[in-house]
Amino acid sequence: MTNGPSIVQLDTLPPVRCPCGTARRAFADRPELPATVHLTHITVDARTHYHRSQTEVYVVLQCGTNAAIELDGVLHPVSPLSAILIPPGVRHRGIGEMTVLIYCTPKFDSADEFFDEAG
Predict the structure, then answer these.
(1) Which domain range does residue 102 map to?
(2) Coil/strand/helix, residue 110
(3) pTM for the whole thing?
């Protein structure tokens, strides 16, 4: 285990499918850290989901002019450098294509992704 600093080039990490689109997740391999950081490309088919224990902060890096974040069914317009705090239990999804940086605490765990609908 290393407790020293490290630099991760987010755009070179392997992308994985997620309810939002694709995510590149950093620092999951550092057991001493309390969080993960994700570079996520949100696609137009992003699915509404929620987490029971994880809190997420989205920072919009790039997005279209009509981009929004849906929080518990309410649409909120976003633009580059918007920051969105999403506590546990809040149903959420991105509307429109966008690239976001996500800070997730505690660390991301796919077992903490839930959907109200089937599929």
Answers:
(1) 31-109
(2) helix
(3) 0.93
The 10s digit of each residue's pLDDT in 58-116 is: 999 999 999 999 999 999 999 999 999 999 999 999 999 999 999 999 999 999 999 99
- 3 inside domain: no
Chain segment 17-31, per-residue pLDDT in tens: 999 999 999 999 999
Asked if 54 and 28 count as a contact pair (C-beta separation under 8 A), the reply is: no
Specify the CATH number for the domain of residue 96.
Answer: 2.60.120.10
Q: What angle do CA 36, 40, 43 make, to 5 degrees?
A: 150
Instruction: Quote the number of domains for the chain.
Output: 1
Query: Using alpha carbons only, what angle is made at residue 92 by residues 88 and 98, rounded to the nearest 5 degrees?
Result: 125
Distance of alpha carbon 88 from the chain centroid: 13
* Strand pairing class (21-26; 92-95): unpaired
Length of the chain: 119
